[in-house]
Write a structure and sequence with these properties.
Blueprint (H helix, E strand, L loop, with lengths): L14 H18 L28 E6 L5 E3 L2 E3 L4 H11 L4 E6 L5 H13 L16
Parallel strand pairs: 1-4
Antiparallel strand pairs: 1-2, 2-3
């Protein structure tokens, strides 16, 4: 008795449809990926202002940040309050057109803020900036 054996075809993978699916997944992941944002060195809870306005300026700005732990950051670098005037004077001697932008936590004691203003005046800043920064929406 002779049995009939059917010859099998080799299995194939439909590559064309897989490439389409891969392209769609790639586009999906690119569009839905949240890109890495630069994290702040310190967390500051800003006081809110309804009348404050931000004015664009072409001069380079130095950010003076003060956290609620009474830590002072000058352009991202922690500076003790005793060395603040020397650091600012050094920066101002290198570039005279610098603008100072202060970001201070709302829970800072007023006495500490006055000490910082005294250091700014000692560094040679005659016009201490008095503009309020608006709290940015999350």
């Amino acid at each position: 008795m002779q049995f009939y054996t059917k010859s099998r075809r080799k299995p194939t993978v439909p590559i064309i449809s897989l490439i389409d699916i891969l392209a769609i997944l790639l586009i999906f992941f690119i569009l839905t990926t949240t890109f890495k944002e630069q994290k702040a060195l310190l967390k500051i809870k800003l006081a809110e202002s309804t009348q404050g306005q931000v004015s664009p300026s072409k001069a380079r700005r130095i950010v003076l940040g003060i956290s609620k732990e009474k830590k002072i950051f000058l352009d991202g670098i922690e500076v003790p309050i005793d060395n603040l005037s020397e650091s600012l004077a050094l920066l101002l001697s290198q570039q005279s057109d610098l603008k100072l932008q202060m970001k201070a936590d709302e829970e800072i004691p007023f006495g500490f803020l006055v000490k910082v203003w005294d250091e700014l005046a000692e560094a040679g800043l005659k016009d201490i900036p008095a503009e309020m920064l608006q709290k940015q929406a999350p």
